[in-house]
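Input set for joint prediction.
Command: fold jointly, output tokens.
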Amino acid sequence: MAEAQKKKDIPHIDIYRAWCKACGICVAFCPTETLARDEGGYPYVKYPEKCINCGWCEIRCPDFAITVEGKKNGKKVRDQFEKESPEKGTAAPGQ
Amino acid sequence: MAEITRLIHEYLRHDKKFPHVWCPGCGIGIMLGSLIRAIDKTGYSKDDIVLVSGIGCTGRLPVYVDFNTLHTTHGRALTFATGIKLAKPRLKVIVIMGDGDAVAIGGNHFIHAARRNIDITAIIVNNSVYGMTGGQYSPTTPYGMKSTTTPYSNVEHAFNISELAVTAGAVFVGRGTVFHAKLLDSLMEKAFAKVGFSVVEIISHCHTQFGRLNRMGTAVEMMQWQRDHSVTVEKAAQMKTEELKDKFKIGVLVDRELPAYQDEYEKVRRWAKGTEKR
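tokens >
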């Protein structure tokens, strides 16, 4: 369960292949080597768990082809969980 | 929805013209992203913004944005923009130019718009070469570099666009690179907020023409070059002249207050009408 919680916190990287021109900027300047290039030079998410949500791939993409959805989603889910079960407390299950 | 997706849907003509015409890895795309983020932050309505461009790679930019746009003749973007500003002073006029557009063919318009201090924001993408027409040398091609019309070496010395703007009298001059995209956001935001002639010079790369002829590599390598050769204004103040030899300063170069042309002109109109005394 703790792992599932952790998974929700991983930012969601979306690569829009129709607009991508495989310039390699997002891969080259990714600080954690989350992204890698395939045979055609197009980027793909190699290690999604490494992403730190810095957003530089999104900012430097000249073609608006990559988006990083931050931890908002995970936060929202967590907030919802807290709201739904206030009596049970916020401690992770199993504690 | 991610933030950038919202911006794309709001400010770009995403359903018509994309993917855009620029080369893979071109800095103009990065600059376009900064532009829409900065405009979003300043809170102007889309109908109150006029985007004017000249000819060249940057001349394609108004096609992709959903503002009032004008695609004008080579080098004359600032003159058209001056006309718009004087006819409708409430509009926010932004001019997008390349280096050839701004300081070669439109060089005279550029210095006089700065001298006149009319309320226009000029965004100049400096890629050191005429990219679209085939890589001819431009006034910003550095000394000793190659281009298709200087195949051995360029024997002329380059313009420093930002320093030219400072000397000509612009009230806000900022310089950034496409590598430092977040700095560009803040520079553009400050330039839009300024009343008077504001200039943002953007050091970009043309890996297709300039990079290929000078063996500077791909877009990524040219962006790494920008990273290694730029110093912030604050840091440059503490460095020695020898250390700054092959580097360029980035950040806010000038931020000063001067009366803007259209306000002064309005005053003269009121004096002439007799509604206000001198």
